[in-house]
C-alpha cells in the first residue's frame, strides 16, 4: 500500500525519510546474504520463524451468523469487522487482476519484496523531499494486516502499524519467509480477505455485498476496479459519497493499469471507463437489535444466546474473550427455537393492554430431556428505541427513567442479570420433590390447619389462602390446592435446606442479596418461607426446572442452540473436566432425583391442572382446573401468586414440553397485578401447550411405582 506524505518541519524530516528508505533498500538487497545486522541474532531468527509459522495459520476475523432453526434463514450477524472468508476460486478473476494492477503489478515476479519497487520509491521520495511512493508489496501489506489482526495487546497493534524503519525491515523479512511457505494464490486469497474497503467492509466478500449486493464471483471488471481502487484510501475514494469524482478517477487508473498488464483490452477499458459507478448498497445487520421485523420477538432469544455464550468456557477464559470470539470467530449458530411453538407463545402472551401495559406477561418453553429452549415470548417489542416509552412506574427510579414498555431489550424472561420475580407457590415443587426423593410417599398425610405454628422455623406461623384448605391433606391434595401449611410441615420433615439445594441442582440461582443470604449454609435450615416462593426466579429457570421433572428427574442445562459450527464447518467443541471432547451445542444432562420420585411429583402435579392422577385423589378441587380441558391431553403444573398478587405464575408441562409464564411489573415489583390477572399466565401456558402440540400424538405420563405411592 502506498505511503501517504507526512507534513515536514524544515529539512529534517525529508532527510530522515531518505535515510529510512535507503536503509530499507540496503536491507532488502542484502537479505539473506547478511542477516539484518542487529536483527540477525539467533533469537531474532527464531522469533521471526515462529512469527512466520503463525502467519501461515492465521486467519482474519470473520463474522458469526445466527440462523433460524431451518439452518438457512439468517436472523442476524455478530461482528466488529464485517467479513466472510472466501476461497480464491470463488472470486472473479476480475478482482484478482484488479487488486494486482492497483497495488503490486510485479506481484507474480518478486519473492515477497520487490527490489525494483524499493529502488523506484527511494528515488521518487528523494526527489520529492517526502514520501510520494511506497514500496510495500501485496505480501508485505498482508503481513502488516495479519500482524495487526492477530495482535492481542495494544503494544502488538502499535508494533504492527507504526511508521518506523525497524517495522518495515521486519515486515520485509516476514514477507520473504512467508513466500517460501505459501503460494502466490494463497497470499492473494488472504490479502483479499483481509483488506479494508471502507463502509465497514472487511475483505472482498463484504465489499462485494455492501457496495454491489453480489458475491465476489460475480464482480464485473468495472466493479472490481472500483473496489480495488478503494484499498489505497477507503474514505478518499468512497463511491458511496455524494461526489464520485475521485472514486471514478481512481477506478479509471486501475482499469488503465489492468490494460497495461494485459488483463483487459484497450477497447474493453474504454467501454468500462465510459460507465458510471452503479452502486447497489447493502447494510448488513449486526447484533440482536437488527433482527428482521417479522422475527422481532426472537430478539429476546438472541439476547439470551449472547448471555449464554458469555458464560461458556469453550469460547474463552472470561466474558470479554468469549464475546470477542462471537464477533470475530466466524461461527454458524442455529437457534433452538421451534417456529411453531414460538408462534404459539407469541399468540398467547398478553395483558390488559398488550405492549402498552406496565405488566409484563412472558412465557418460556423448554424441551424435557434436552434443555433446549423452544420459545421465548413477552408482551414487549424488542427494540433499543425507548423514546416513546412512558416513565417508569417505580417512584424510586428517578424522574427521567423510562419504563420497559412497549420497547425494551431487558432480559425479562431470564438468562441475563435481572433477578426475576417472586414465583410464589410454584416453589412447592422443590420440597415435594426432595421429600419424595428422600423416601416419603405421595400419601404422606397431615391435618393442615388454617394457621400453622412452626416448630422449626423460630415460631413462624404462615396461613393458607383460604379456610377451605383446612383438613387432612396428602401430596396430591396439598399440591393441587396449594396448601401452605401442609408444605411448611412437609418442609420440616426433610429440612428446608433439602429443597433449597435441590432447587439449585435444578438450575435456580440466587441473584439478590437477600436470597443469597437466606440460601447460605448458615441460614438455609431456617428458610421456611422458601416453599412459599419468596425468592426471585426467572421463567427460563422455572420452565427448565419443571422440564427435569417431566424428564423423569433428568435435569438438562438450558441451552438456546441446536448447533454451533466453527468457520471450517466442524461442530464447536469443548473439553470436559475429565478430558472428554464434547460438542458445545449438545445437551448437558444429569440425573438429579430418581425417576420414580419425579414420576410421583408429576402424579401430584396433575392435580392443580384438573387432570386425573394415576394413583391418588386430588381432594375435590384445584387452583387451575381449566388447564386440562384447554390442553386436551395429560398435563401437570402449578400455580403461584405472591403477597397482594404482586406477581402471578403458572408452570405447566406435558411429556414433550414444559412452559413457565408470569405476569408482573418488572420496573416496580410493588405494583400489584391484582387477582383479576392471575389467570393470565395460566391461560398463556395452557393455550401455548395446546397450540404447540396440535396434531401431535398424545403421550401419557409414566405412573409412579406403588412403593412411592404409599
From TrEMBL:
Gene3D superfamilies assigned: Biosynthetic peptidoglycan transglycosylase-like, DD-peptidase/beta-lactamase superfamily
Keyword Oxidoreductase part of the UniProt annotation: no
SUPFAM superfamilies for the chain: beta-lactamase/transpeptidase-like, Lysozyme-like
Catalysis performed (reactions): [GlcNAc-(1->4)-Mur2Ac(oyl-L-Ala-gamma-D-Glu-L-Lys-D-Ala-D-Ala)](n)-di-trans,octa-cis-undecaprenyl diphosphate + beta-D-GlcNAc-(1->4)-Mur2Ac(oyl-L-Ala-gamma-D-Glu-L-Lys-D-Ala-D-Ala)-di-trans,octa-cis-undecaprenyl diphosphate = [GlcNAc-(1->4)-Mur2Ac(oyl-L-Ala-gamma-D-Glu-L-Lys-D-Ala-D-Ala)](n+1)-di-trans,octa-cis-undecaprenyl diphosphate + di-trans,octa-cis-undecaprenyl diphosphate + H(+); Preferential cleavage: (Ac)2-L-Lys-D-Ala-|-D-Ala. Also transpeptidation of peptidyl-alanyl moieties that are N-acyl substituents of D-alanine
Protein name: Penicillin-binding protein
Positions of the Glycosyl transferase family domain: 75-258
Keywords: Carboxypeptidase, Cell shape, Cell wall biogenesis/degradation, Glycosyltransferase, Hydrolase, Membrane, Multifunctional enzyme, Peptidoglycan synthesis, Protease, Transferase, Transmembrane, Transmembrane helix
Family: In the C-terminal section; belongs to the transpeptidase family. In the N-terminal section; belongs to the glycosyltransferase 51 family.
Entry's Gene Ontology molecular function annotations: penicillin binding; peptidoglycan glycosyltransferase activity; serine-type D-Ala-D-Ala carboxypeptidase activity
Span of the signal peptide: none
Start and end residues of each Penicillin-binding protein transpeptidase domain: 363-667
Record's GO cellular component terms: outer membrane-bounded periplasmic space
PANTHER family given in the database record: BINDING PROTEIN TRANSPEPTIDASE, PUTATIVE-RELATED, PEPTIDOGLYCAN GLYCOSYLTRANSFERASE
Keyword Transmembrane helix among UniProt keywords: yes
Pfam families: Transgly (PF00912), Transpeptidase (PF00905)
Top-level taxonomy: Bacteria, Bacillati, Actinomycetota, Actinomycetes, Micromonosporales
Listed GO biological process terms: cell wall organization; peptidoglycan biosynthetic process; proteolysis; regulation of cell shape
Transmembrane annotation, as ranges: 12-34
Amino acid at each position: 500500500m502506498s505511503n501517504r506524505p507526512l507534513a515536514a518541519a524544515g529539512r529534517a524530516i525529508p532527510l530522515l525519510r531518505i535515510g529510512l528508505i535507503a536503509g530499507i533498500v540496503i536491507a532488502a538487497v542484502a537479505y539473506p546474504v547478511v542477516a539484518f545486522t542487529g536483527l540477525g541474532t539467533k533469537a531474532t531468527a527464531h522469533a521471526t520463524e515462529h512469527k512466520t509459522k503463525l502467519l501461515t495459520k492465521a486467519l482474519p476475523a470473520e463474522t458469526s451468523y445466527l440462523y433460524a432453526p431451518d439452518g438457512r434463514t439468517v436472523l442476524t450477524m455478530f461482528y466488529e469487522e464485517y467479513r466472510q472468508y472466501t476461497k480464491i476460486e470463488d472470486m472473479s478473476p476480475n478482482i484478482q487482476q484488479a487488486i494486482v494492477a492497483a497495488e503490486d503489478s510485479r506481484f507474480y515476479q518478486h519473492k515477497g519484496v520487490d527490489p525494483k519497487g524499493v529502488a523506484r520509491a527511494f528515488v521518487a521520495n528523494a526527489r520529492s523531499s517526502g514520501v510520494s511512493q511506497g514500496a510495500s508489496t501485496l505480501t508485505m501489506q498482508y503481513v502488516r494486516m495479519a500482524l495487526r489482526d492477530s495482535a492481542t495487546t495494544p503494544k502488538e497493534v502499535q508494533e504492527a502499524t507504526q511508521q518506523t524503519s525497524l517495522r518495515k525491515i521486519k515486515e520485509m523479512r516476514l514477507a520473504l519467509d512467508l513466500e517460501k511457505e505459501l503460494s502466490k494464490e494463497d497470499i492473494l486469497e488472504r490479502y483479499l480477505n483481509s483488506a479494508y474497503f471502507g463502509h465497514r467492509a472487511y475483505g472482498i466478500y463484504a465489499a462485494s455485498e455492501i457496495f454491489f449486493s453480489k458475491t465476489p464471483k460475480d464482480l464485473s471488471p468495472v466493479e472490481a476496479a472500483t473496489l480495488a481502487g478503494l484499498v489505497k484510501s477507503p474514505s478518499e475514494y468512497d463511491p458511496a459519497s455524494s461526489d464520485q469524482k475521485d472514486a471514478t478517477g481512481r477506478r479509471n487508473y486501475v482499469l488503465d493499469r489492468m490494460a497495461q498488464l494485459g488483463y483487459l483490452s484497450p477497447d474493453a477499458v474504454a467501454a468500462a471507463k465510459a460507465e458510471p459507478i452503479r452502486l447497489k448498497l447493502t447494510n448488513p445487520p449486526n447484533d440482536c437489535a437488527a433482527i428482521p421485523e417479522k422475527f422481532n420477538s426472537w430478539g429476546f432469544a438472541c439476547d439470551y444466546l449472547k448471555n449464554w455464550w458469555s458464560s461458556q468456557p469453550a469460547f474463552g477464559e472470561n466474558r470479554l474473550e468469549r464475546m470477542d470470539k462471537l464477533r470475530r470467530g466466524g461461527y454458524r449458530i442455529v437457534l433452538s427455537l421451534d417456529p411453531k411453538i414460538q408462534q404459539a407463545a407469541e399468540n398467547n402472551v398478553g395483558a390488559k393492554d398488550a405492549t402498552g401495559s406496565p405488566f409484563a406477561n412472558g412465557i418460556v418453553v423448554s424441551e424435557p430431556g434436552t434443555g433446549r429452549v423452544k420459545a421465548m415470548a413477552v408482551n414487549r417489542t424488542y427494540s433499543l428505541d425507548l423514546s416513546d416509552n412512558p416513565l417508569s412506574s417505580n417512584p424510586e427510579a428517578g424522574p427521567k427513567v423510562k419504563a420497559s414498555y412497549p420497547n425494551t431489550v431487558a432480559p425479562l424472561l431470564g438468562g441475563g442479570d435481572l433477578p426475576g420475580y417472586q414465583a410464589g407457590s410454584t416453589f412447592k415443587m422443590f420440597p415435594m420433590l426432595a421429600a419424595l426423593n428422600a423416601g416419603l410417599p405421595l400419601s404422606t398425610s397431615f391435618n393442615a390447619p388454617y394457621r400453622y405454628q412452626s416448630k422449626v422455623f423460630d415460631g413462624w406461623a404462615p396461613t393458607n389462602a383460604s379456610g377451605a384448605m383446612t383438613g387432612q391433606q396428602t401430596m396430591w391434595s396439598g399440591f393441587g390446592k396449594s396448601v401452605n401449611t401442609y408444605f411448611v410441615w412437609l418442609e420440616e420433615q426433610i429440612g428446608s435446606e433439602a429443597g433449597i439445594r435441590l432447587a439449585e441442582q435444578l438450575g435456580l440461582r440466587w441473584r439478590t442479596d437477600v436470597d443469597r443470604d437466606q440460601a447460605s449454609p448458615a441460614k438455609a435450615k431456617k428458610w421456611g418461607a422458601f416453599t412459599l416462593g419468596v425468592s426471585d426466579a426467572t421463567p427460563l429457570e422455572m420452565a427448565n426446572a419443571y422440564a427435569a421433572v417431566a424428564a423423569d428427574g433428568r435435569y438438562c442445562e438450558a441451552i438456546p442452540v441446536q448447533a454451533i459450527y466453527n468457520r471450517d464447518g466442524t461442530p464447536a467443541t469443548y473439553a470436559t473436566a475429565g478430558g472428554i471432547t464434547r460438542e458445545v451445542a449438545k445437551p448437558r444432562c444429569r440425573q438429579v432425583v430418581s425417576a420414580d420420585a419425579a414420576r410421583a411429583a408429576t402424579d401430584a402435579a396433575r392435580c392443580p391442572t384438573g387432570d386425573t392422577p394415576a394413583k391418588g385423589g386430588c381432594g375435590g378441587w384445584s387452583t387451575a382446573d381449566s388447564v386440562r380441558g384447554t390442553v386436551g391431553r395429560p398435563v401437570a403444573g402449578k400455580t403461584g401468586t405472591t403477597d397482594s398478587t404482586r406477581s402471578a405464575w403458572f408452570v405447566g408441562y406435558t411429556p414433550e414440553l414444559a412452559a413457565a409464564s408470569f405476569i408482573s411489573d418488572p420496573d416496580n415489583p410493588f405494583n400489584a397485578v391484582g387477582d383479576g390477572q392471575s389467570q393470565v399466565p395460566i391461560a398463556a401456558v395452557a393455550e401455548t401447550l395446546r397450540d404447540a402440540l396440535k396434531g401431535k400424538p398424545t403421550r401419557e405420563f409414566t405412573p409412579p411405582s406403588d412403593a412411592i405411592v404409599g
